[in-house]
Structure to design on (124 residues):
């Protein structure tokens, strides 16, 4: 199987996103500005690349139900992570449940992105 360069870029982005997330958790508030900026930018970049990939694949052949569902689940999780991440990094101390939610959804999103990417790229 040939691994497209885009899959390598997204996988590296996911890895750095988890590493920066762990670093943020360990550092605590006030969060290191550069690490937080990288974490935010990567979360946006990976989502944009995944949606772009889904659109490209869809242009060649209509997406299957599983491709559509996994891409939608990943997008939904990423939007929730952006909202919870924004609240976590905001001025006020966020409730513990929000932190736990961001951590759990963060790992779920990484897995969902991997599955979506695999399904999208396996067929081409
Ligand atoms: C797809 C998007 C995202 C993913 C997959 C993700 C993933 C993660 C992960 C895995 C952690 C570490 C959890 C742990 O320690 O076990 C984390 C922590 C964190 N993330 Fe994200 N994140 C995303 C988006 C964002 C965004 C957009 C922001 C800010 C606007 C953000 C802010 C934070 C902060 C502040 C922490 C540290 C929380 C703490 O103190 O425990 N994240 N994230």
């Amino acid at each position: 199987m040939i691994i497209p360069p885009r899959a390598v870029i997204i996988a590296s982005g996911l890895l750095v996103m988890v590493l920066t997330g762990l670093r943020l958790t360990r550092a605590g508030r006030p969060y290191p500005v550069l690490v937080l900026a990288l974490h935010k930018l990567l979360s946006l970049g990976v989502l944009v690349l995944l949606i772009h990939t889904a659109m490209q694949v869809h242009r060649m052949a209509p997406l299957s139900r599983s491709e559509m569902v996994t891409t939608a689940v990943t997008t939904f999780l990423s939007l929730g992570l952006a909202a919870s991440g924004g609240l976590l990094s905001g001025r006020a101390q966020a409730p513990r449940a929000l932190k736990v939610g961001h951590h759990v959804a963060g790992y779920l999103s990484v897995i969902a992105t991997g599955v979506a990417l695999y399904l999208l790229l396996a067929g081409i």
In short: The chain has a mean pLDDT of 96. Helices lie at 5-27, 33-60, 65-89, 96-122.
